[in-house]
């Protein structure tokens, strides 16, 4: 029954986790229309009309939504840059003032064609640091596609409709390539390691905290510190150790990211800020996993750890705009707030989500810290009960052994108090010494057997008492120390 129950628990758990993480990615491309890109036509000419015509052909669930706004709402491209920086839009597309007139003149005048600059026509603004693999395909690639479609629409529409002939190679060059879409990237993030910042890095940090927590628990279990050390002192020491460990661990993580940044434009100030945010996140998870081991039954601790990892990673896989609305529950998980904070740091403030990310992180820190501290008192209480129980069990076994020995001594006294015939006794000693030795050995085996039965009965009663009034406490996963004093002596 126990094997069957655990079989079902684990199967349903992992089935649910697989459904949860795959559900967040389900029909991802059909949610791309939830990504809004603002479009401003500062030119007001045929190029802007070509863009709108191309968008009408491309518009659909798998294409970002183009939101047309008046130049009065965004007087300059700097205003568009600020709107994207404040995450009001995922991107911005604009046509430069006078672009249609310059292009039309270049198509009809060879001299103007020679001086024509096809890079001063159309541009888009975006932030590659925000979910880099996603925005590369959903924003950048889509706007490049829109620009190409607009070029075709311009060539077949009113833009070149009045042109009857091409004058010279310069004009032909302009006709073949009327504009090149310019990319204004707030924070270029093209390095290969960007793909794991919000996935594998998160998982490794969580596993890192779990294993060291097991090492600390092994230390406390080995030396029985919960039973003999003041709880307040344990709280202070455990938090000092966890803060030091996560401090160094987060430094190693961010140093590795920096070491493999591959030309990524980030500076020392961003390094320090990223280190601080990672440190806070790591310590939150150390305390949270510790809370799991304190308050959950031991069989459910591994299940809770795996679920915690999946919930956190899922909250960072995609922007919530590309996942079903249910997955906005991911706002409550520390990993999501960590990633939002890192994006804000790496893009120099162009992801202003700290007004909710930091309060959520500090709330997790406070709740986990209090729960972990209360857990220390709980562990100390049950450790004392466990010590008392061990003393009681030892006393019961000792009493049983003493009582058994006293009964045996009394029986021996009664046996020796009976009168014996001197001649027979002397004859017995003289003629059968080997038999006496044999009887002595048999008597020892009998005594051992009777004593083992008594102690076994005591152990059975103790186990029943423990099951009836259990004082067991989960001290969490405990691993043997790699380099202990005893291990060094054995070597």
UniProtKB/TrEMBL annotation:
According to the record, the segments passing through the membrane are: 7-27, 195-220, 240-260, 272-293, 300-320, 356-377
GO CC annotations on file: membrane
**What InterPro entries does the entry give?**
DUF3533, MNNG_permease-like
Q: Which residues form the DUF3533 domain?
A: 6-369
Q: Which Pfam families match?
A: DUF3533
The reply to whether Cytoplasm figures as a keyword in the UniProt entry is no
**Looking at the keywords, is Ribonucleoprotein present?**
no
What keywords tag this UniProt record?
A: Membrane, Transmembrane, Transmembrane helix
Region annotated Disordered, chain positions:
413-441
- The protein's name in its UniProt record: Nitrosoguanidine resistance protein SNG1
Q: Which organism is it from?
A: Fusarium oxysporum f. sp. rapae
The lineage is: Eukaryota, Fungi, Dikarya, Ascomycota, Pezizomycotina
Q: Source gene?
A: SNG1-2
């Amino acid at each position: 029954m126990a094997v069957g129950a655990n079989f079902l628990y684990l199967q349903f758990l992992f089935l649910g986790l697989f459904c949860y993480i795959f559900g967040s990615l389900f029909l991802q491309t059909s949610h791309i229309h939830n990504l809004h890109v603002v479009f401003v036509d500062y030119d007001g000419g045929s190029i802007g009309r070509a863009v709108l015509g191309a968008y009408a052909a491309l518009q659909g669930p798998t294409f970002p939504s183009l939101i047309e706004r008046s130049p009065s709402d965004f007087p300059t491209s700097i205003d568009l840059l600020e709107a994207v920086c404040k995450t009001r839009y995922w991107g911005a597309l604009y046509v430069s003032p006078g672009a249609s007139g310059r292009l039309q003149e270049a198509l009809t005048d060879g001299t103007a064609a020679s001086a024509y600059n096809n890079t001063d026509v159309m541009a888009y603004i975006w932030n590659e640091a925000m979910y880099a693999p996603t925005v590369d395909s959903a924003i950048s690639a889509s706007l490049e596609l829109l620009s190409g479609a607009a070029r075709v629409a311009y060539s077949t529409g009113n833009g070149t409709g009045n042109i009857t002939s091409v004058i010279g190679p310069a004009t032909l060059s302009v006709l073949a390539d009327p504009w090149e879409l310019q990319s204004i990237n707030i924070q270029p993030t093209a390095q290969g390691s960007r793909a794991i910042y919000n996935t594998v890095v998160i998982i490794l940090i969580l596993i890192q905290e779990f294993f060291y927590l097991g090492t600390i628990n092994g230390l406390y279990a080995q030396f029985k510190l919960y039973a003999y050390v003041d709880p307040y002192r344990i709280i202070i020491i455990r938090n000092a150790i966890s803060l030091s460990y996560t401090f160094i661990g987060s430094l190693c993580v961010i140093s590795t990211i920096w070491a493999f940044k591959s030309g990524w434009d980030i500076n020392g100030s961003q390094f320090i800020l990223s280190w601080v945010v990672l440190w806070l996140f790591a310590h939150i998870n150390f305390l949270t996993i510790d809370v799991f081991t304190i308050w959950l039954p031991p069989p459910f601790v591994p299940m809770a750890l795996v679920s915690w990892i999946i919930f956190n990673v899922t909250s960072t896989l995609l922007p919530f705009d590309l996942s079903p609305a249910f997955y906005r529950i991911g706002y409550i998980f520390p990993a999501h707030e960590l990633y939002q904070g890192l994006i804000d740091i790496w893009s120099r403030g162009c992801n202003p989500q700290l007004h909710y990310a930091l309060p959520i992180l500090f709330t997790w820190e406070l709740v986990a810290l209090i729960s972990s501290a209360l857990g220390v008192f709980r562990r100390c209480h049950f450790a004392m009960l466990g010590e008392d129980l061990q003393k009681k069990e030892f006393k019961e076994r000792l009493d049983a052994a003493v009582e058994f020995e006293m009964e045996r001594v009394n029986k021996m006294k009664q046996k020796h108090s009976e009168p014996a015939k001197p001649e027979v006794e002397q004859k017995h000693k003289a003629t059968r010494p080997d038999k006496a030795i044999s009887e002595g050995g048999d008597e020892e085996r009998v005594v051992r057997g009777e004593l083992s039965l008594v102690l076994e009965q005591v152990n059975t009663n103790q186990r029943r008492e423990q099951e009836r009034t259990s004082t067991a406490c989960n001290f969490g996963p405990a691993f043997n120390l790699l380099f202990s004093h005893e291990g060094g002596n054995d070597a």
